[in-house]
Amino acid sequence: GAGVSxxxxxxxxxxxxDVELRCDPISxxxxxxxxxxxxxxxxxxxxxxxxxxxxxxxxxxSDRFSAERTGGxxxxxxxxxxxxEDSAVYLCASSLTGWGTETQYFGPGTRLLxx
Amino acid sequence: AQSVTQPDIHxxxxxxxxxxxxxxxxxxxxxxxxxxxxSPGQGLQLLLKYFSGDTLVQGIKGFEAEFKRSQSSFNLRxxxxxxSDAAEYFCAVGGATNKLxxxxxxxLAVQP
Lengths: 115, 112
Prior knowledge:
The complex is a heterodimer of chains A (about 120) and B (about 110). With about 120 residues, chain A is mainly beta. In chain A, strand 4 (about 30-40) and strand 5 form a beta hairpin. In chain A, strands 2, 4, 5, 8, 9 and 10 form a six-stranded mixed sheet that branches. A four-stranded antiparallel sheet of chain A has the order 1-3-7-6, with no helix packed on it. Chain A is globular, with a radius of gyration of 13 Å. Helices cover about 0% and strands about 50% of the residues of chain A. Chain A contains no helices and ten strands. With about 110 residues, chain B is mainly β. Chain B is about 0% helix and about 50% strand. Chain B is built from no helices and twelve strands. Chain B is globular and about 40 Å long. Chain B starts with a strand and ends with a strand. In chain B, about 35% of the residues are buried. The model of chain B has no long low-confidence stretch (mean pLDDT about 95). Classes of the chains: A mainly beta (about 120), B mainly beta (about 110). The interface of A and B includes residues 4, 42, 45 and 103 of A.
């Protein structure tokens, strides 16, 4: 079956604009994660969705960042009023149930550049 | 605090030589440990994982890792490196919720 897909692959935006990044998890996976990969910060956890539970937003760096997951499938990460420090690769992953021993399957990422 | 340390930012080995990538973790509960590889332009791919049982785990592409609780380490090894192993390697620790904490990565270069 298809893996995790993300769109767009690349996004260039101007400082202050809003952006939306999309993630399509593997079909049937109930857990979905967003991570950010940036120079100097490595890979950082942002947010985690598991089924119908309230999402774990503990990794979101500011209130400009938000995410939603509609119908338990597709997720959108929104960054409002983008700043240059938001430039990074945003990675989405999914796993079957969210249990700690499971493998997370990663998408190819969205490379965001804020000018 | 929960963290993962990969002390080697960049390693160069000759093709055919053995490889060991170091990983140390700090985690307050039972750790679940992972090694992922990221090739240029590719997403992260799981190499292997440990959560219980035999402390020596085998993974894909001929990699193995050994969990040493006393040293809080989970080092990745391969007996003979191939040119196609050139990539960035990430160690990660997680717990029950599968929220992963990653190390900063080790970039592996392979000399012919």
